[in-house]
Specification:
Length: 149
């Protein structure tokens, strides 16, 4: 699984003119699943996102997690994280999981984060979404379960 995680002061997702998910201070997570990802990849993403220490302490060091600051997480499905531009300018998404597997893994990550007691909002899987956010820092981190292999 791949995730791009941003520290935000606020973030929201709108589908067809209706806000379907919104948070104040916390993490905006764009999440995509690869064709051969499985539960262990989802768990890796859960553990990394939940434990990510990117919020500052009083002395300015990034040492606090989203749970330490009482923040929330907004998870947005994002198959385009697997866009491959090695051949040409139009991305190929052959490396992305199919919709059924991707949704199952996406829901595993959302459930895993909620299981850790974190408040989690989501977008709408397979919908065209308008994502708005106020990135704090800016702090943007990439997580990739393939870095394990």
């Amino acid at each position: 699984m791949r995730a791009v995680v941003q520290r935000v002061n606020e973030a929201s997702v709108t589908v067809d003119g209706e806000v379907v998910g919104a948070i104040e201070r916390g993490l905006l997570v764009y999440l995509g699943a690869a064709r051969d990802d499985d539960t262990k990849d989802a768990q890796y993403a859960v553990d990394k996102i939940a434990g990510l220490r990117v919020f500052p302490t009083d002395d300015g060091r990034m040492s606090l997690s989203v749970s330490d600051i009482g923040g929330a997480i907004l998870v947005v499905s994002q198959f385009t994280l697997f866009g491959d531009l090695r051949r040409g300018r139009r991305p190929s998404f052959d490396g992305a999981a199919g919709p059924e597997d991707a949704e199952r893994l996406y829901l595993e990550v959302v459930g895993g984060l909620r299981g850790k007691g974190l408040p989690v909002e989501t977008g709408t899987f397979r919908a065209t979404m308008l994502v708005q956010c106020a990135v704090d820092g800016p702090v943007t981190i990439q997580i990739d379960s393939r870095k394990l292999y």
